[in-house]
Amino acid sequence: VQLQASGGGLVHPGGSLRLSCEAPDHTLDLKTVGWFRQAPGKQREGVSCISPTAGRSVYSAYAESVKERFTISRDSAKNTVYLQMMSLKPEDTAVYYCATNDLQGPCKVVFAAHEYSDWGQGTQVTVSS
């Protein structure tokens, strides 16, 4: 699956950004989609995930460090998964990647990068004053 992550940039602390993950040749509704990030000198970290669409139910999960600040969502019509990031902090600075797998049921993202088989190229998010 070819994935395209976009929407990164430079933002002041407290600011917001919305990242997008698109898959031109696949239907993202059928896939678990995860967002991960990697800061310089640090290990890749799971941020959030959303399970495949199943009727009206939507399951998502978040790392503790981003709960209440980040929101993952799908736009089926646009075949896009978003990561809305609010109240950004300098420690959120990293390259953000989206990834997918074909697992069904509740998704996992914390310590679960090995479960994702397809990865996008990453988009840089820098939070700085």
Distance between the termini: 36 Å
The helix fraction, in percent, is under 10%
The structure class reads mainly beta
Number of separate helices: 0
**Overall morphology:** globular
Number of strands: 11
**Which strand-content bin applies to the residues?**
35-45%
The rounded Rg comes to 14 Å
Look at the structure and give the mean pLDDT: 94
**What is the H/E order?**
EEEEEEEEEEE
Summarize the biggest pleated sheet: 7 strands, mixed
Poorly predicted tracts of residues: none
What keyword list fits this structure?
129 residues; mainly beta; seven-stranded mixed beta sheet; four-stranded antiparallel beta sheet
Describe the structure.
- The chain is built from no helices and 11 strands.
- Strands 2, 4, 5, 6, 9, 10 and 11 form a 7-stranded mixed sheet that branches. A 4-stranded antiparallel sheet has the order 1-3-8-7, with no helix packed on it.
Topology record:
Blueprint: E1 4-6, E2 9-11, E3 17-22, E4 32-38, E5 45-50, E6 60-62, E7 70-75, E8 80-85, E9 94-101, E10 118-119, E11 123-127
Parallel strand pairs: 2-11
Antiparallel strand pairs: 1-3, 3-8, 4-5, 4-9, 5-6, 7-8, 9-10, 9-11
